[in-house]
Amino acid sequence: MLRLRAIYPCSWRVFQFRTCSCKPLISQMIKCTDEEQVFDLIKKNKATFSEKQVECAFNILWQFQQQRTSFLKNVDCIRDYPHFLTLHNLATSQIEFMDDDTLVNVLYFIQQCAPEAHDLLVEALVIESWRRLERFDINVLSKFSSCLANQLLYYSPLMGKIADIVHRNLETIDDLRSLSVLMVSISSLTSQRFQQQLVNKTEHLFDTIDSSQVNVARRIVQFLRNIKYSYYPLLERCNKVFLSNMNHLDLDCISKILSLYHSLQFHSFEFVKMAKKRLTEMIPLFDHPDGFVKLFVALGPMAGPEEKKQIASILHKHLDDYKPFELLKITQTLTFLHFQSKELFVKLRELLLRYLKISVIPSEIAILVYALSILPSSNLCEVEISQIEAVLPQCDLNDLNGFATSVLRWIHYDRKYLDSTTGKQLKLLQKLDHYGLQRLRNSNSLNLLWKELKSLKGDWFTESLLEETVATLLRLMDEINSKNVAEIASFISRTNYLNTLLLDRIASVVVQQIEKIHPFEILGIILPFSALNYDPPQNDEFFRICIQHLNSYLSGLEPPMLVFLGFSLAALGYFPEDLLKAIFNIKFLSKMDSQLELLCSSLNRRVQFRLMELNRAVCLECPEYQIPWFHDRFCQQQYNKDIGSMNGAQKQIYKMLAEVLGGTNCVKASVLTPYYHRIDFECVLDKKKKPLPYGSHNITLGKLPEMHWESNTQITGSRLPPGAERIALQFLDSRAFCRNIPHLKGKSAMKKRHLEILGYHIIQIPHFEWNSMALSTKEARMDYLRERIFGEGKS
C-alpha cells in the first residue's frame, strides 16, 4: 500500500475534496493492496456507491495494472472478476450525476481496464461527453481528446469539433501540458495555417513548463512529426529537456524519442550517446516481448559487438508476440546488423506470410511485403501478388514505392529463373507505374503531395516517376515557401536531376524569407546547388545570405553537419573564414572523433572523407588561411583498401593512349597527385607537343600508385623541362553528370579546378562521347584522342 501511495501521491489529493460520505470508502480503497480487496469493497457497498467512488475504484484498478509487466494478461484478469460487471453497471447508472472531470476520468479508466471493441459504457460516456463538449475546461477537453485518440477516432466529426474549439480559444489557452495533448490528438485535422499558430503558441508557452516535463516535450515533438514539420527551434528546446532528464527516461520514452527524431531527420549526438548508455544498462532487465522489441530496434543500430550478441540471443523466443510493424523493424535491424541465422529468418518469413494472408490495410500490406523482400531467399506466390494488386488503387506514393522496391528486389534475385511468377511481377511493376503517375498528375497541393514524396527513393522512383515528379513540382512551385524549401532542395539533390527553374525558385524564396529559415536548414538548401554545380541568377546574394545566416549559429551545429556544410560550400568555390575556423581546430576535431563512434560505418566513412576533401580544397584554393594538410595517413590507408581494376572503357583508352603516345612508357595509369586526387591517365608533352617517356617510373596496375611529386609543395615549375606540360586524362562515366543533361556535377568540377591548380592541363572524356556512334570504330577513337591531346586529327 505504501508503495502504491508513493508512486501515485496525487491519487489521494484528487479525492480529498469530495464529500464526507465518500471519504471513508475512498480511504479504504486507497489502502487496498490488490484487485481482490477493491472488488470486495465494491461487493459490500454497491447499494451506496457514488459516482466519485466509481471513479476512485477505476483509478485504483488502473494503478495496479501500471505496476505490472504483463499488461494484457492482467486486463483480461480484471474483466474476469465477478464484480467487475457490478462496477461497470454502477458506472453506467451514475453517468448523469458525474461532473465533467469525473465523466472523462471514468471514460479514460474504463478504456484502460476493459479495452473491448464496442463497450456500451464507453459509448454512453462518449455520447454524454459530446453533449457537454463546449463547457469542458482545457484540461478535461485534452483528456477527452486522448480518449478519442485511443479509439483511433482521429478523423471523426467529434475530433473535428474539438479542433474547432481549440482554434477558437487558442489565444486564451495558457496550459501547455493540456495543449500538447490536444495538439497530438487533432494534428490530422489541422490546416497549415492552424499548425503554424499552434507552433507559435507552443513557443510562447514553452518557458512556462518545468524543465522536468518530459511528456510535454515528447508530445510537442510528436506533433511536429505528425504534421511533418522539422521546426528546429522547438526541437532544440525539447532536446534540452530530454538531455536534462535522461536518467529518468524509461525504455518506452527513449524508443519513441529516437523514432521521432529519425522521422524528423533531427540529429542530436549528445542524446544518442546518452541513450546508448541507458539502453545498454537496460538489456538484462527486458526479457518481456513488449519491451524487448523496442530495446532491440532502438539499441541495435548503435550497439557494439557484445550488446548485439546479448540482444540477438533473446529475440527468437518472442517472435510470435510481435505485430507487422514490429516484425518489419526487427527484420530491418537484423539486416543492418548482418545477423546470420537461417532458423530465425525462416520463422520471420512464416509470421510475415501469416499476417499477409489476413491483412486488408494497404499500408500494412506494404510493410509486410517490404519486410519479406529483405529476408534472404524470399519470394511471393501468385495469390500474394494478386492481393497486392487489389489494394493498389488505395495506395499513396509511399506504399507504391514500397511495393515497387520489393518487387524489383525479387526480380533481381530471380533473374536467372524467368518463370511465370517473374512475369507476374513485371506486370505488377507496370501497374505500379500507372498508379504512381496517376497520383502525381492528380496532385494539386504541394503540402499534401510532399507528405508522400519526401521519403521516396530507389530505382523504381528514379526510373518511373522522376520526370513526372519534377513536372509536378514545377506546376506547384509557387507553393514552395520557408517551411518546405529546405526539404525540397535536399530532395532535389538526391535525384541528381537539374532543373534550373526549380533551383531559381528555391534561391528566390531563401533570399526573400531567410529570417524564417533555421540555420540547421541551410545545409539542405545548399546541397542541390553544390551537388549539381549550379549558380542561380542572384548567386552572390544567395550564398552571401546563407553564409551570414550560418555564422551566428556555428557553435550550435553538430560536427558532421559543419563538415558537410564546409564541403558543400567549397565545391561551389566558397570558403567562409568563420566556418573554416570553427572546423579546423583541435577542440572541434576531438569532439567529432567522439561522435563518429556513434555513427553507422557508412556515415562514419562519409564524414571522414568529406573532412579530408574539405581539408584538400582549403589547402589548394585558400593557402592564405594556412590550414595544414593532415590527411596523408588517412588517404594512404584508404587507397590501400580501395585500389581496383580498370573498367572496360578505361582499358580501351589505356591501350589506345599507348599507341597514340608511342608506348606504355609514355602514359601512366591510375596516378595519385599531391593531396591524393586520382587521375585515370597522365602523360607529359614537351614544348613541341612530343610525349616524354617516364622510363622505369611507370606503375603496375592494381598496386598503390606512387606520388611522383612531393606532397604538400608548390607545383610551379616542378620537375618538368622548360615548356613541358603535364596532361591529365579523365574518363567521366554517368556519375559525373546530372541525370537529365550532360552538365558536370559539383565534385567533378571541383576536381578539375584542383588539377588545374596543381599544374595539369585537363582532358575530360565523357562517356556519352566515347560510346557514341561517331566513335564506334577504333580508328575514330584514335583520331579523337589525337585531337584532344595534340589538337590534330588523322595522322
TrEMBL record:
Record localization: Mitochondrion
GO CC, any one term: mitochondrion
Domain of life per record: Eukaryota
UniProt-recorded name of the protein: FAST kinase domains 1
SMART domains, A to Z: RAP (SM00952)
Keywords associated with the record: Mitochondrion
Any GO BP annotation: regulation of mitochondrial mRNA stability
Species of provenance: Canis lupus familiaris
Domain RAP, first and last residues per copy: 727-787
Pfam families xref list: FAST_1, FAST_2, RAP
InterPro entries per the UniProt record, alphabetical: FAST_2, FAST_kinase, FAST_Leu-rich, RAP
